[in-house]
Specification:
Layout (H helix, E strand, L loop, with lengths): L2 H13 L20 E2 L55 E6 L5 E4 H6 L3 E8 L12 E10 H8 L7 E16 L2 E14 H4 L5 E6 L2 E2 L9 E3 L12 E7 L6 H5 L2 E8 L2 E8 L6 E10 L2 E9 L5 E8 L5 E2 L1 E2 L9 E7 L5 E11 L26 E5 L1
Parallel strand pairs: 2-11
Antiparallel strand pairs: 1-14, 2-3, 4-5, 5-8, 6-7, 6-11, 8-9, 8-10, 12-13, 14-15, 15-19, 16-17, 16-20, 18-19, 20-21
Bound molecules: ligand MTE and molybdenum atom (MO).
Molybdenum atom binds next to loops.
Length: about 400
């Protein structure tokens, strides 16, 4: 990159409040000659995308910096409940226990020798929303062994109905039962039904964008369930336990559920559901200007169902079709662009809306009024900016 482009980029990043940290290499192809970023006026001054220190370090992806299909490992969002356990790769063993014919304890090298299937999977935390500028989302290429291969080699017994995934992270936690509260040491755990676990997609992953999975993102091994919310992707995976009964752990049945009113035969019924497949969502991530026209960049997520349309609306104008990026794949996030011709000076509101091939339309915030719990907020995200 020549110095003039570098200077332009530095100016644009300064406008984002990012100037002081220098120019990350991956940001280099972002802006063409003469292209400048139009800052959003809806991003808080203190918005941070650095790993927050403390017992439970987390990090947002600053979606204004998305510049390509894969999120670099040092930018990938980070969130979890119980901090980052240190797992020693040299002594690591993935245990497979319970209702299997051949219980296993698989070392990391052994796991790597069992396969190198790749999937590009993007996901968001089910708590991701406009309130946090949609920063709990990322997209990476994962490499690992198909879960069903491991389960088939272990041999599921006929009565095996539920596959539980336990992380190495654990803590004394409140387990509520009626009016009682037990304080018990619990591992982070999630489950899939036998049928879901034997689908071709779920991956026991040991690499992320061609590198070992980072410690914050689950080193050395994590589960990836493409098309599902982040919570399904158990990090620091230490044990796969197969059982007959439904698993009702804290992060399966209590924390991660949606309380939502649905009209059923003309009456609103409050149905509680577990967090599973991602609901169709899109968001505008960045707006740039080069000459007279502005370019809008955004991302969309689905459960793997193809996108039918992504549309962008400027102020009170009509919905206009956006263009999907050719790099998108079945389970990746879907990048899109929209050319905003001749934006007039002044304040504007831009919003995007995704519709999938099953006809499911991304709702407005008002459409979600009967959803009482905040998870699974796939509402349209109106963005505000000012054209000088
Ligand atoms: N072991 C373990 N895995 C976990 C969690 C956790 O607390 N412990 N949190 C889940 C949640 S809620 C999300 S959104 C994703 C976040 O993955 P990331 O930090 O790699 O972005 O991890 C999931 N996997
Ligand atoms: Mo999450």
């Amino acid at each position: 990159m020549d110095n003039s482009r570098r200077a332009i980029l530095r100016g644009s990043l300064a406008a984002l409040g990012l100037g002081a940290i220098g120019i990350p290499e991956w940001a280099i192809p972002v802006l063409a000659q003469g292209e400048t970023v139009i800052p959003f006026t809806d991003v808080p001054q203190n918005y941070s995308s650095t790993l927050r220190a403390g017992a439970n370090p987390s990090r947002n992806l600053d979606i204004r910096k998305i510049d390509g299909p894969l999120t670099p490992n040092d930018q990938f969002f980070v969130t979890q409940h119980l901090g980052h356990p240190a797992v020693d790769a040299a002594t690591y063993k993935l245990k497979i226990s319970g209702l299997v014919d051949r219980p296993k304890a698989i070392a990391l090298d052994q796991l790597k020798s069992l396969g190198a299937t790749e999937v590009v999977a993007g996901f968001e935390c089910s708590g991701n929303s406009p309130r946090g500028i949609e920063g709990l989302v990322s997209n990476a290429k994962w490499t690992g062994v198909p879960l069903r291969k491991l389960l088939t080699e272990a041999g599921l017994k006929p009565e095996a109905a539920e596959v539980v995934f336990l992380g190495a992270d654990h803590a004394a936690s409140d387990v509520e039962w009626r009016t009682q509260k037990f304080n018990l040491d619990q591992q982070f755990g999630r489950s899939l039904t036998r049928e879901q676990a034997l689908m071709p997609d779920p991956l026991v992953a040991y690499a992320m964008n061609g590198q070992p999975i980072t410690v914050p993102n689950g080193f050395p091994v994590r589960l990836i369930v493409p098309g599902w919310y982040g919570v399904a992707n158990v990090k620091w995976l230490s044990q796969i336990h197969v059982q007959e009964d439904r698993y009702l752990g804290n992060y399966e049945a209590r924390w991660y559920r949606t309380v939502k009113g649905e009209p059923i035969d003309g009456e609103t019924k409050y149905i509680e559901t577990a967090i599973s497949h991602m609901r169709v969502k899109s968001a505008i991530a960045r707006v740039t200007k080069n000459g007279a026209d502005a370019k809008v960049l955004g991302f969309a997520l689905t459960d793997g169902t193809p996108i039918k349309t992504i549309e962008v609306k400027v102020d009170d104008g009509p919905w206009q079709p956006a263009t999907l990026d050719p790099s998108n794949t079945k389970y990746s996030w879907k990048l899109f662009t929209y050319v905003w011709k001749n934006p007039p000076p002044g304040e504007h509101t831009l919003v995007s809306r995704a519709t999938d091939a099953k006809g499911r339309v991304q709702p407005t915030a008002a459409d979600l009024a009967e959803k009482k719990s905040f998870l699974e907020d796939n509402s349209q995200f109106p963005r505000k900016l000012t054209i000088a």
